[in-house]
Structure formats: C-alpha cells, structure tokens
Amino acid sequence: MSSNLLAAVVHADGVHPRRLIGHAIARLRRQGTALAGVIDLESTGAAGSHVAKRWLKNLATGEVLTIADFDVAVLNELALGIAQMMHADPSHLLVVSNFGRVEAAGGGMRRAIRAAIDLGIPALVAVPAANLESWRAFAGPLAVEMPPEMPAIQEWLRAQGLLAPAALPPGARQPSGLEKRNVT
C-alpha cells in the first residue's frame, strides 16, 4: 500500500470529473471492492444562481439523495452516516466526488475523510482548484495530487492494492519502475 492514503484529483473550477471517477470505480465494483462515499450524479441551477440541486449517490447503499447545494446540515449528516458505516463495516476505498465549499470551510465530507484516515482506508477525492489550498491544509502529507486523468487514478489505485495490474498483450513485458518513461 502506498504511503499516500489520500488522492486528490485536482480539476479546473467548473469542470467536474464525475464521469472519470465513475469509470474508475466501475472496475473496482466489478472486482467486488467495497466502496464508501458519495458521487455527484448531476447538478442543476442557472448560471449565477445561488439555488441549485445536487443528486448524490451513496456508493455503499446505492441510495440517491437530492439536496440543495451547500446544505451544510445534510452534508454533515451524510458524512456522519458514512463514517459510522465505515467503522461498522470497513470499506476498501472512500470516494468523495467533491471537496467543495462546505468541506473547504471545515464541514461536510471532511468527517468521512477523517474516519477513513483513522481506519487506514484510502480515499479518492475530487478537489476543484479553488479549494486546493484548503485541501492541502487539511490533508497534509497524507495526500498526493493528480490530474483528472484515468492513468493517474489507476496508478494510485494499484499502489493502494485496489486494482490489479492491467493485462499485457502476449509477448509484452511489464515495465519496471526504474525504466525511463517518455513524458511529453
């Protein structure tokens, strides 16, 4: 297991990686990996509007919740429920698809992330660039930051022991970590 228990998928503000995270965890689900946390399914609201709705899917139960955006009480309650569930029935991975304004201010899913840290459960968290400094102050040296790209997420999941190495074509060899990679 990697020493970086937390992984921040850092993305541009307004460009949410919900589909990318959904694809990343789909393979884990097929493997039977126990997941905890929530993913954003979609959001609504006019540009510049202060009232929006979010649909959040609880990864452990499959329940879909509709909440008003920035509903601190509901997010805090959801995080408490996820933390309690992880203590009762440990998962292999916590997924939080948005370290948003509520989390940046100290509430929301922070409680679930703290519980994951306490239990030694890796957490994959989408972090918008606007909240990156708050994330860094919260996560400290336990976190690694990565771009919103599938290879980066898969590499971290493999380092956590959650994702088996990809099958290689016949005759191909697995590159070692000591070999140079061409990076463009």
Order of strands across the biggest sheet? 4-3-2-5-6-1-7
Q: Low-confidence stretches at least 5 residues in length (pLDDT < 50)? A: 175-184
The helix/strand class is alpha/beta
Q: Share of helix among residues? A: 25-40%
Q: In one word, what is the shape? A: globular
Q: What is the tally of beta strands?
A: 7
Order of helices and strands: EHEEEHEHHEHEH
CATH superfamily: P-loop containing nucleotide triphosphate hydrolases
In DSSP terms (H or I, runs of 4 or more residues), the helix count works out at 6
Total domain modules: 1
Euclidean distance between termini CA atoms: 28 Å
Strand content: 15-25%
Oligomer: single chain
What integer is the average pLDDT?
86
Which CATH architecture would you pick? Answer: 3-Layer(aba) Sandwich
Any idea what the radius of gyration is? Answer: 17 Å
> Could you give a short account of the major beta sheet?
7 strands, mixed
Q: What is the third-level CATH name, the topology? A: Rossmann fold
> What is the CATH C level class, in words?
Alpha Beta
Description:
The protein has one domain (6-159): P-loop containing nucleotide triphosphate hydrolases (Rossmann fold, 3-Layer(aba) Sandwich), CATH 3.40.50.300. The model is unreliable at 175-184 (pLDDT under 50). The protein has helices spanning 18-31, 72-88, 101-104, 110-119, 132-139, 150-159; strands at 6-11, 35-44, 53-58, 64-68, 93-96, 123-128, 143-146. A 7-stranded mixed β-sheet has the order 4-3-2-5-6-1-7, sandwiched between helices. With 184 residues, it is of the alpha/beta class. Strand 2 (35-44) and strand 3 form a beta hairpin. It starts with 5 loop residues before the first strand and ends in a 25-residue tail after the last helix. The chain is 34% helix and 22% strand.
